[in-house]
Design brief:
The chain is mostly helical. It folds into two domains: 1-46; 56-176, no CATH class. 63% of the residues lie in helices and 0% in strands.
Length: 194
């Protein structure tokens, strides 16, 4: 057999695959897609656990255990991802990509010790508050919605503030509740803070 006829024969087989070969390729593509999606989803879920978050943010995770979001009369408990990862899929993916910068910062040693973390804490808090202000505190509103608040069960000051915020629509949760789940960091030296 001459070289051109080998190439011609090979090309002809490629152009007209058998039904079995086409079925195998389709099955492999489907199985590969399932495996990829399963691995991707497992990874996404794992990065939403407190165990994962405490790898870099251990002081913060310890701090949360002293708040109403960790232990309360109703037994409802929020974990890190409830407040820091949007629930809808598109925004969640965007937030995960943004958070990869935090993983990089930890890997290169920017926040790998408690001291370094505390030194950067004001900057990190300010950035997170701006993010939450920008999305109208959507993560808070996944659990706390003005429409379902019973103002008669709140203290007079809270009821007044919440009803005013609802009526005006100017403020968002993070404007008043910056210290609700974390201790407020020392904001000296952060632009816009006094």
């Amino acid at each position: 057999m001459k070289l051109p006829s080998i190439i011609t024969t090979f090309w002809r087989r490629l152009k007209t695959p058998s039904k079995v070969a086409a079925g195998v390729v389709l099955f492999m593509g489907f199985a590969g897609g399932l495996l990829f999606w399963g691995a991707f989803n497992t990874g996404m879920e794992y990065t939403n656990t407190e165990e994962f978050c405490s790898g870099c943010h251990a002081p913060i995770v310890k701090e949360i255990r002293e708040t109403i979001h960790f232990s309360n009369r109703s037994g409802v408990r929020a974990i890190c991802s409830d407040c820091h990862v949007p629930h809808n899929w598109t925004d969640k993916i965007i937030r995960k990509v943004q958070a990869s910068k935090e993983l990089f910062a930890f890997a290169i040693g920017t926040i790998d010790t408690d001291e370094k973390f505390k030194a950067r804490r004001a900057h990190l808090a300010d950035r997170e508050w701006k993010r939450m202000k920008g999305n109208n505190s959507q993560e808070c509103r996944n659990c706390h919605e003005f429409d379902y608040m019973d103002f008669s069960e709140q203290g007079p000051r809270s009821a007044k503030q919440h009803s005013t915020a609802l009526a005006k629509g100017e403020k968002t949760c993070v404007d008043c509740h910056k210290g609700i789940a974390h201790k407020l960091p020392d904001m000296k030296g952060v632009e816009g803070w006094q």
